Amino acid sequence: LLSTACNDFLDEVPDNRTVIDTPEAVSELLVSAYPDANCVFFTESMSDNVTDRGNTLDPYVQPDWNRANRQAFYWEDIDMTYQDSPNYFWMASYQAIAAANHALEAIAELEAKGVDCSAQKGEALLCRAYNHFMLVNVFAQHYSPAFAATDMGVAYVTEPEKEVFGHYERVSVKETYDKIRKDLEEGLPLISNKAYGDTPKYHFTREAAQAFACRFYLYVGEWQKAIDAADEALGDNPTLRNWNEYIQMSTLRYRRVRICCWHPLYLSLPWISRSIVTDILLQSITRYFSKMIMW
Question: How far apart are CA 273 and CA 44, in angstroms?
Fold first, then answer.
C-alpha cells in the first residue's frame, strides 16, 4: 500500500489574498491608507471664493458635474456619488482608514514576534489621524473649545473591518480631535524618512507629518505647538514659495494667457472659483512654460 500526504497542498492559500507577514508587506498595504479622493470640488464651490458666471454650461462636461457644481454653490444636497463628490470622499477616506487599521493589526502581530515595524506603525497612525481629521472638518463643525464637547463629530474607527455591516458610534468633535491627537503624537516620533527609500513622495515623511501637526495645533488654538511644528517642517534651510513673484505672474491672465494643455472642465463650470483658475494657471505656467502662447 502506498500513501501520500496532502499537507503541502492544504498549507497553500486557496485564493490570491495578501498575507501581511513582513514589514515590507505592511508598507505595501499602507499605500492604500492614503485616500484616492479629494474634497476640493464641492468645498470650494460652497465657499465665498466662487462666483456665478451665468449660463455657461459646456456640452463636453458631464451633466452630473454641472449639477453637482450648482448644488454645492447653493448649499443643496449633492446627489452625485462618484469621484469628487461628498459621498465618494467619505467612502474613500474610510477605506483608507480601514487599510491603516489592518496594517496596525499586522504590525501588532509582527511586533509580538520581535519584528521591528516602528516606521510602518508611525505611518499607519499618521494616516489614520489625517483621514479622520479631514472627515471631521468636512462633515462636522469646526473645532471650538466652547462647543466641541457637544458638537457631533464623526465615527473614529480604530479596529479592522471584518463585518459587512459593522456598527460605528459617532462621537463628539472633541472626542474626535482627542483621538486624532493621540494617533498623531504617538505616530510622529516613529516616522522615518529612510523607510521610504528612494520614493518618499506621497508618504508621510517627517516634514509632511510636522506640517499636518502644525495644522492640527493651529485648529485647536495651541499656537506655540503650531509654531514649533512649522519650524520642524521647514527645517534649517526652508524653501518657501515666493508669493510676490506668483502674484505678478497671476496678472498674466489679464494679458490673455492661453495654456495649450488647459483642461476644459474647470473653465466650463458655471460656478467657478477664481482661486482655482489662478492656481491652475500658475501650475500650468510653471509646468508647461515652454508650451505657453501669449498674445
Answer: 7
Question: In 13-38, which positions are buried (b, 16+ CB within 10 angstroms) versus exposed (e)?
Answer: eeeeeeebeebebbbebbebbbbebe
* Contact call for residues 99 and 128 (beta carbons, < 8 A): no
From 159, 156, 169, select the one nearest 103 (Cα to Cα).
159
Q: pLDDT tens digits, the chain, 295 residues: what are they?
A: 555 555 565 556 666 666 888 999 999 999 999 998 988 888 888 888 887 766 655 555 566 777 888 888 888 898 888 888 899 999 999 999 999 999 999 999 999 999 999 999 999 999 999 999 999 999 999 999 999 999 999 999 999 887 777 788 999 999 999 999 999 999 999 999 998 888 888 889 999 999 999 999 999 999 999 999 999 998 887 777 777 776 665 555 444 333 333 344 444 454 545 444 444 444 443 443 333 333 2
Tell me whether residue 183 is exposed, middle or buried, using C-beta atoms within 10 angstroms of its C-beta: 0 to 12, 13 to 18, 19 or more: buried
- Alpha-carbon separation of residue 268 from 56, 63, 280 (angstroms): 7, 12, 14
What type of residue is 283? Q
CA distances from 285 to 173, 250, 251, 256 (A): 41, 9, 12, 13
Q: Which three cell numbers mark 128?
A: 489614520
Assigned C-alpha cell, 204: 508621510
What is the pTM assigned to this prediction?
0.78
CA 19 to chain centre: 26
